[in-house]
Design a protein that fits this description.
single chain, mainly beta, 1 helix, 10 strands
Length: about 170
């Protein structure tokens, strides 16, 4: 038989605090908004997480859809399109907003140099909150079109005289 010789017992209190967060965060790309854009020098978006969650970071990945189809690799040679695996192509965006990540952006000279006018790109964004939950991936596709349009006039020929009797029905 074990004997407990202690006569006085002092109860103690112990507590732990934790946050229970089951809501996934959200991420949206707000620029570019169109199927065709003249510039991808800055890619912008927003992120949100319902309380008690907080956005920890926003990640982006860029895939060239014009052959050869490849993801942009921000690590290799300071950034380039190559045969990197999709999971390794995510990189962290930047945010200078309060609350942090409510607005985010990517402004990368290395990425801008690798984007070629006339090619189609898929942009994907996702947010991660402080509980480790990821948002659904937001995807948009755009064609970079940074070329200035060119026009030529073929009629009338240079130095030719043309007489117009009415301009009422011209559209």
């Amino acid at each position: 038989n074990a004997l407990n010789r202690q006569a006085v017992f002092t109860p103690s209190t112990s507590s732990n605090t934790f946050t229970y967060d089951t809501d996934d965060p959200e991420a949206v790309i707000t620029h570019p908004l169109t199927a065709r854009t003249t510039s991808l020098n800055e890619i912008r978006g927003t992120a949100f997480d319902a309380l008690p969650g907080l956005i920890e970071r926003v990640e982006l990945r860029v895939r060239r859809l014009t052959a050869p189809v490849q993801y942009w690799d921000p690590i290799t040679n300071g950034g380039e399109f190559n045969a990197i695996a999709a999971g390794a192509a995510w990189f962290v965006a930047a945010s200078s907003e309060a609350p942090t990540w409510s607005r985010w952006y990517v402004s990368s000279p290395a990425l801008s140099v690798d984007l070629v006018s006339g090619r189609s790109y898929e942009l994907e964004a996702r947010a991660r909150d402080n509980s480790g939950l990821y948002s659904t991936v937001y995807t948009t596709t755009t064609i970079l079109d940074s070329y200035t349009p060119e026009t030529t006039l073929t009629f009338p020929q240079a130095s030719a005289m043309v007489y117009v009797s009415s301009l009422n029905n011209n559209t």
